Amino acid sequence: MAAVDLNEITVAQPLAAERRGVSITRRIWRAAFASYEFRIGLAIFVILVAAALFYPWLSGINPTKLNVSAKLNAPWFIGDKWMWSAPLGTDQLGRDMLVRSLVGLRYSLLIGFSTVALMLVVGCTIGMLSGYYGGKVDLILMRITDAQLSIPMIILAITVLGVSRPTIPAIILVLGLSSWPVYARVTRSVVMTERKQEYVRAAQVSGASNLWIMLFLLAPLIMPPVIFISVLDVARMMIFESILGFIGLGVQPPTPTFGNIIADGRKYLLNAWWIATMPGIFLCFTLTSVNLMGATLERARNRIYGGAL
Amino acid sequence: MALLSFLARRISQGVVIIFLVTLLIFTLLRVVPGDPVRLMAGGMAPEALIEEIAKEMGLRDPILVQFGRYMTGVVQGDFGQSFTRPASGASTGGTGFGDSSRGDRADVLTLIGDTLPMTLQLAALAVIFALIITFLIGTPAGLAPNRWPDRLAFYVSSIFVSLPNFWLGIVLALLFSVKLGWLPAIGYKGFAYTILPAIVLAIELSPVLIRNLSGSLSAVMQSPFISFGRVRGLGRRRIVYGHALRNASVPLLNLLGIQISGLLGGVLVVEFIFDYPGLGLLTINAVLQRDFPLIQGIAIITSAIFVLINIVVDLIASTIDPRLEY
Amino acid sequence: MSMNRRDFLSRTAALGVGAGLLQLNPSAIVSPAFAQSKPLVFLSAENITGNWDPTAHTTLSQKNVEGFVMGFLVRNPMTVENPDEVVYELAESLKLIDADTIEIKLRQGVKFHDGKDFKAEDVKATFEYGSQPDRPAQWYPGPTETLTITTPDDYTVVVDTSKGGYPAHLFMFLAGFLPIMSSADIAQGPKGPISQRLNGTGPFKFVEQRGNDTVLEAYEGYFKGKPVIPGINFSFVGDSTTRMLSLMNGQASIVERLEPEQVGTLEGNDKVAISRVTSVENKYLWFRCSKAPFDNPLVRRAACHAIDRSVLLEVLGDAGAASANFVSPVKFGYIDLPNYPEFDAEKCQALLAEAGFPKGEGLPPLEYITSVGFYPKTKEYGEVITAMLQEQGFQVELSVLEIAAWNERLYDRPGGGPGHMIDCGWSTGSPEPDLILRTHFHSSSKRITGIEDKELDASLDKERSAATLEERKTILQTETMPMIADKVPALSLFTSVMIHAHDKSLTGLFIYPDGSMDASKATLG
Amino acid sequence: MISVPILSVRDLTVSLRSEEGGRNIVSDVSLDLAPREIVGIIGASGSGKSVLSRALVNWIDPPLEIASGSVTYKNENIFTLPPRRMRALRKEIAYVGANPQGALDPTLPVGRQIVEKIQALVPELSRADAERRVIELLAAVRIPSPASRFHEYPSQFSGGMMQRALIVDALATNPAFLVADNVTQPLDVTIAAQVMRLMRELTERFDTAVVFVSSSLPILNDSADQILVLAEGRIVERQVPERLVHSPQHPYTTQLISEIPQIWTDTAPVVPKIPRQGTPLISIKNAFRTYHVRKRGTFASYSEVRAVRDVSFDVFPGENFGIVGESGCGKSTLMRLLSRLEMPDSGSVICGGQNISRLWRADLLKFRKDFQLVLQDPFNSLPPRTPIGEIIGGPLRVHGVRSADQRRKQVLAVMEEVGLASSLFDELPLGLSAGQRQRVNVARALVLDPKVLIMDETLSALDQTEQFKLLKLFSDLQTKHGLTYIFISHDMAMVRRVCNRIAVMYLGEVVEIADNTKLFFDPGHPYTKALLSAIPTLETRRYDPEECLLDGEPPSPIDLPPGCGFASRCPKAFGRCRVETPLLMPDGPDGEAACFLVPSYPPQPVTAAAA
């Protein structure tokens, strides 16, 4: 009822002058950027990424250079043995935790985002197809999805990663290919409802091919929320990578990733908690910043699309 | 009648799924380098012996033949025998060639049978905890979108999701088991041992659920019958708990059904950390020892469980919401 | 200096044995009041094999279990101070009659856990069974047919090795760690009860294997008297942090293989005591000597000179002790080899140049395989070594594999094992050096390295066939060991120190350098 | 009115808060409601009548807010009541809305929810009693087998039934007054008529006062004691129906009345009879379409929904062809066949000499270009998140107009033509009125300048004023582009106004097909009569509802009974109707009807005479 009603109201609404001729997308970004949360998120994210990209290079500290004599130094805020070169302390082999975390962040971001990207591509494509065509296609694709869904990631991991020395691409592949079904399901359900809508029919009548409809009509409509959901998975994938490291299928040393830093640091949790904890904190910051931006963006979209002025 | 036919349909589909899984895993495991026989016999074993054992175990036949043999076994409830484990069920390793002299090996099924209940108990408790957390945090968030409870939920889930489960496991064990001595942590000698691992799993599980619940709840709160309910004279509590949550719980259920398979990943690590004698520990050892029959067995069983759980989920969902035609 | 002392001691030992003098008793440690207490919970870092046959494996954790259950002719405490000490248990004396004959007098009135009386037939059966070439553990100097074992009476065993052409004194050390099995069990063959359960004369009885727990209970009939603690739960817990946590919250009584950092943490804890034992185990960097580039001794030596072992020890902290030989200091014939390769960048570069790879140019990319490992710090020092080698121009790539994969790649195979270098430790609960030297460097076995070298073979055979211990030691220390140090088919990195942490209330426990324990006099709580 | 009013509204003003400040939706409305009185409020969409009706039951949520004024019930202003007391009052203040389907929790049985309400408001009533009451009320609103319906879920109720259930829900607690907001709007005419009849009966029986809000004067005219005319949120006139109709005071009212379709009056528009010669533009021949739906909760058994059965007709260039029928009669399926969204199972659709099911790629695209569709639902038919410009330009992109400027030019031209401000180009459809949305729809279809436009219920969601405007637009476009229209509708009045030739559908069959005048003045089929009798109009009806109006609802097209599909509801049905299916037979010069009562219909063949 609410919907009908509001529409009745908004009928004669005069268009706010400033909105004239401004494309929707730009309006959304404006709205998002207007909120301080978005700015904070953006700030944190930019800082982190910038640090990850430049600090190691500026500081000239080599994340893989061992300095055994200076191992397990505490960070500056506790303990007294810390050095300027390692404000966040050092790990079990005396490498600077700050640089390692930042470089780790680099790789983890790479892994997290490209994994999720892979998941989205595969999952959404399959979901889209089976939701759009329904019938046999749907049946087959969904059975495959369920099958995939019911295989524990870990087993897929050992088989695929067992093949060769686990490299970052291999890991991305494993994680991505083992986690897409969730998205297939979500997309499918959304598409199924949307596809029944009349505007889809209208497009068909105007002569649009199915592909055209999926790409230009449905995808733009259903992707954003799905992508928004997937932000959590970026983090989950980074964690999964650490689980792989934990059973010896992770990225090989000396390359630092959050995964293997945490996995190796685990042993020292009792007397050098910072090794395993720092990446977690960085991870949390990254995630929160991305999440903040995502959330505000989503809110902005809903506001604009929800017809608020 | 309707129910029966539903079950018939879903179970037949489930069988297909399980078959696919088995086929996939089976072939994958066969293409992994690293000859299982060498693992069984131990590295010191001479090639001749390896070949001999392999032959006698039929591991040199074409994959399809092996698969056929395996499946015929499976349908008769015979999942084969562990490569490395003795009947005693001990997790074994080390190297000893002339493996032929090993004590008779454990049946995969019995191994799983012993550990599965433990894990189910753990998983069930974890899910319960997760749901409690989810409802405590997610409901207010869903009722007050974009206000502080929503923010809270948002930050909490951000933090939860960035906690590596083994990190959390150790920290909790240190805190509650060593420092405070409230809960036992390592091994299993009673129900109490399930609590800590379950909490860790719950925390790993909850972020997605929280987000889902708050999302769908706020969506439901938008729907006409909620505001109309007020006009019909229903109290807010009744509307929220009697109707809104009821509707919002359906997508939550489905998500939960999907998450189950993800749960095993967590169970694995957590059981290893807490030395909890469940399927997860079995799996990780099977993986570490490349105990292929065991891995296969576990894969089949887990996917079967997954199928069953999802059938149950759909049943519950369709009793909650009759429109979901089952 | 200390060396000389040790030489002296061992010499006297050797002679002493001949004279049947030596009488010492490890139970000098503590003999506490009998107090009923809870069973001892031991958390092992390594899992056991599926097969209880003591000759079927070389797995340490299972040796530990055997240490509780089985009886031994003698035990060698093998302390660094007194490496050659001998304690008589099932044997009352070992007498070397001549170079090829040894006579063993047995203790009387001992019973196996299954009730069978312990007699000479059991020792004979054990020796003959264990010497079969297909027994994985491979304790014996030569195959069964080279032995002639006679039992003049029920409590006397005479071993004649003349057919084998090696001296009988080898059995002195071997006697130190042979679990004596019941002839009845052996009679039923390798697939028989012997593989199903342990049956010995030791202080604890094997009850059952419960999942990952091996359950033992005190054996009333133990010839030194029933142990104080009612039983032992020996269970495998893979994760070191987990082991430590369960010790801290009182669920475990003793845990093994502590990480040095954990030692730091635990020393603060007043409920826990730490024990360190220099072990019989060295850890090695094995070269695949049968394939390029490490088929070339020069390259091997270059690599060895690139590695600064002192840094490794820094990484290992308490968990490692310096040693400069291919066997542990507690083993027979140990000596700090003067020509043992030390860290020396110049030498390394010189050797590389000499081998035709100046600054490592022209070397293929090398794979260095190690495991996530249940040994402390395995991965860490792996990383360090990789870094060091890279510094000298070796393009080394480290592969950290989970145990099974590592295990599967460990041993030599036709055409050389996988990778170019692999990390592994080797430990045997006996002073016998050949258990390492011969096993790995003689072309008849060449377990991991795959080396085939006539000179080495010759030298190894020579030291084995030496008429007396005395003579043998000299050959070992002056010829064989230095030769190996020149050819370095493997580099021994350090000697592991076994760190156990246990409940303070646990007393009277003696830990042998191979990690096995004598708990017969231990009390708990 | 002497009696004290039970509800009195004084200077009520409701305004919409927004970032640009407030705007009044309802301004200083005052009215009194006497016991048992029925007050009708009429207003076009956008007149704020829904907001007013909600204000009456104190249901105003942000961004709306009560700016000033009072609604006094039992001499208390309900806006100032604390929530708790307000809730108690809900017992006596009832509301029925325009959207029956969304009004109840879809996951709980209807009966249970009504009981829930009763118990929430009348705690003293025992559950059993409450259930009994609900069941008898369900019976009272003529819901068949109420006892079992009680346990069914909203999704299992049809629109009409749901609306009745809601009336039950509203009256269950014996409210003192009831606000009915556009209750008949979503319903088919015959059903709407039934519901209206019901409302009247019940309100008398429970002596409830009613505020009846509607956009259709005829409906109010039949029932209300007094009518208020709402325009721009203000009450511009209040009168008793007769006087309002015959001597309207306010110009707005006059206009409103003038827009009410004339059916039989001599002032009614005369639609010219288009000469039907030459080749038909499109002709459909013996088309069948059956859907197979899995029986609920069965393993693999399907049931047949026979949506279109043996339909044939021709449409000639320049004519307006109407297809009328109630929901579920298969007209939408027919539309899908005509626009080649689906293919007939058997039979064919011929266009320009080609069977369109055979068209492919380029030919198909060509066909699409000439043959456009304007869809029913103004809300679903526009992608919610695409700017209007893009929506209208979409077809151009599909048809290969690459350059954006080119598109923009054409789109703006069309928008201008259909009367959309060019400023809307970058706007989202949301916030547009139904009328504007339909204009967008039309523009989207028109942008390809097609030969034929199929109007699928295009106007049914609009109120008369809007309809009027759009119809005007259509005829202009027709003269300008020489378009041919096919109107698919359930609204007889609308069809009467524009269509030259009309086909009446029932249960997937064409039961009558005739020229405009013939159909409305001398229908051949009883169903047509029923439809005519239900048309909301101010005129004296040619067909008396009492004798033609149907009870119950059309049977489901699943597993149809043999014989004439209409027999089950037909007042004139006799033996033959239940065994033999009547075919279309000429009924006079310009019509055909499928009824045995058509004079020309051959008598039942005597078995002997066969062969």
Estimated helix fraction of chain C: 25-40%
The average pLDDT of chain C is 82
Based on CA atoms alone, the radius of gyration of chain A comes out at: 24 Å
Briefly note the structural class of the backbone of chain A: mainly alpha
Describe this structure in words.
The complex is a heterotetramer of chains A (309), B (326), C (525) and D (611). Chain A has helices at residues 2-10, 24-34, 36-59, 97-133, 135-150, 153-163, 168-179, 181-196, 198-205, 210-246, 258-265, 273-305. Chain A is an all-alpha fold. Chain B is an all-alpha fold. Chain B has 2 domains: 18-78, no CATH class; 116-320, MetI-like fold (Orthogonal Bundle), CATH 1.10.3720.10. In chain B, 74% of the residues lie in helices and 3% in strands. Chain B is globular and about 85 Å long. Chain B starts with a helix and ends in a 6-residue tail after the last helix. Residues 92-103 of chain B have low confidence and may be disordered. In chain C, helix 9 packs antiparallel against helix 11 (378-391), helix 13 (434-441) packs antiparallel against helix 14 and helix 14 (454-464) runs antiparallel to helix 15 (469-487). Among the domains of chain C are: 71-190, Dipeptide-binding Protein, Domain 1 (Dipeptide-binding Protein, domain 1, Alpha-Beta Complex); 278-498, Dipeptide-binding Protein, Domain 3 (Dipeptide-binding Protein, domain 3, Roll), CATH 3.10.105.10. With 525 residues, chain C is of the alpha+beta class. With 611 residues, chain D is of the alpha/beta class. Chain D contains 20 helices and 22 strands. An 8-stranded mixed sheet of chain D has the order 16-17-18-13-19-20-22-21, with helices on both faces. A 6-stranded mixed sheet of chain D has the order 6-7-8-3-9-10, with helices on both faces. Chain D has a 4-stranded antiparallel sheet with strand order 2-1-4-5, with helices on one face. Chain D is globular. The chains are: A mainly alpha (309), B mainly alpha (326), C alpha+beta (525), D alpha/beta (611).
Please supply descriptive tags for the structure shown above:
heterotetramer, A: about 300 residues, mainly alpha, 12 helices, flat, disordered N terminus, B: about 325 residues, MetI-like fold, 2 domains, two-stranded antiparallel sheet, about 75% helix, globular
